[in-house]
Design goal:
This protein has helices at about 5-35, 40-55, 55-65, 75-90, 100-130, 135-165, 170-180, 180-185, 210-230, 235-240, 245-295, 300-304. The protein has 12 helices and no strands. The protein has about 300 residues and is mostly helical. Helices cover about 80% and strands about 0% of the residues. The chain starts with a helix and ends with a helix.
Length: about 300
């Protein structure tokens, strides 16, 4: 597979991840709140949808070890993930959360699991096929593709909901966009046998038992709970407290996506020049400041 083809495929696979994130992070909570779903139920559903990402490492292990249907260690998982994602998100257009919340949860969980499935195997395929000299470039393409998907579809979803007065069109768009990377993935050719260096090594788990990794794990859990908690609430806050329109929520999603891009660039520079300790404390401090600013915001416009 030539280099431009691989780059385009990685960009497309991460672009559609950004599409899913645009819905989950910005629009899902306000959408469920419209149907009178309690905040605790929305929180439980959000936690459930994150579960596949927590188990992502085991999906990667599975694809490392199992040649699915004899079609390869990566390709069939990517194809299956994209098709299942389209099915799950498409089903969201047919289910009303107030009358069939369980079916909605199942549909969204399938979508979330499917995104995790092709995400983890895409990462594995990138590691398998990318020369060391190109790894930074490929990583940039992936992150950039996801950011572009998040920004564009945050804006697009807001406009579509405002124009049609319904979220159904959002699920249809997500389902169709999930099929886009198949143009590239179906043409992937994997070698019949994997190199020994690409086999999963159970001994790698021993490293996680070292004290320094345990300390980092505790930090990662606390940091993630706080940062994701703050990141996940503004859209619901804007909808419930300020009555923000879908277009306003879309604009908020755009600004959040652009902020993530700026933060990634600034974080990289800070890490290079100030080191890990300074970068860590800077991130924690900024999260606290942003959380306080959200709480003090007088209106939806101030949040955006």
């Amino acid at each position: 597979m030539n280099r431009p083809f691989r780059y385009a495929m990685f960009a497309a696979l991460y672009f559609v991840q950004g599409v899913g994130l645009a819905y989950f992070r910005t629009f899902q909570k306000p959408y469920l709140a419209r149907f009178g779903i309690d905040a605790d139920e929305i929180g439980l559903l959000t936690a459930l949808l994150l579960l596949p990402f927590i188990l992502k490492i085991f999906i990667g292990m599975l694809s490392d070890r199992v040649n699915l249907f004899g079609m390869g260690h990566r390709k069939p998982y990517m194809v299956g993930g994209l098709l299942l994602a389209a099915l799950g998100f498409g089903a969201g257009a047919l289910v009303q959360p107030d009358t069939a919340l369980t079916l909605y949860v199942i549909a969204m969980f399938c979508g979330s699991f499917a995104v995790t499935l092709f995400d983890s195997t895409t990462d594995g395929y990138a590691v398998d096929t990318t020369p060391r000299a190109e790894q930074g470039r490929v990583q940039g393409i992936m992150v950039g593709g996801r950011a572009v998907g998040f920004v564009l579809l945050s804006f697009g979803f807001g406009q579509l909901i405002g124009a049609f007065g319904s979220y159904r069109v959002v699920f249809i768009v997500m389902a169709l966009v999930m099929l886009l990377p198949l143009v590239w993935v179906l043409r992937v050719e994997e070698p019949a046998a994997r190199d020994e260096s690409q086999q999963f090594d159970w001994a790698a788990f021993r490293e996680l038992g070292r004290p320094r990794f345990m300390v980092f794990a505790v930090y990662a859990v606390i940091y993630s709970a706080v940062s994701f908690g703050i990141d996940g609430l503004p859209a619901l806050f804007m909808d419930q407290v300020f009555g923000a329109s879908p277009q306003m929520l879309g604009s908020f999603g755009v600004m959040r996506g652009l902020g993530a891009i700026a933060g990634a660039l600034a974080g990289g520079l800070l890490l290079d020049r100030g080191g890990r300790r300074l970068s860590t404390f800077a991130a924690i401090g900024l999260i606290g400041i942003v959380g306080a600013l959200f709480a003090a915001a007088p209106g939806a416009g101030a949040v955006v």
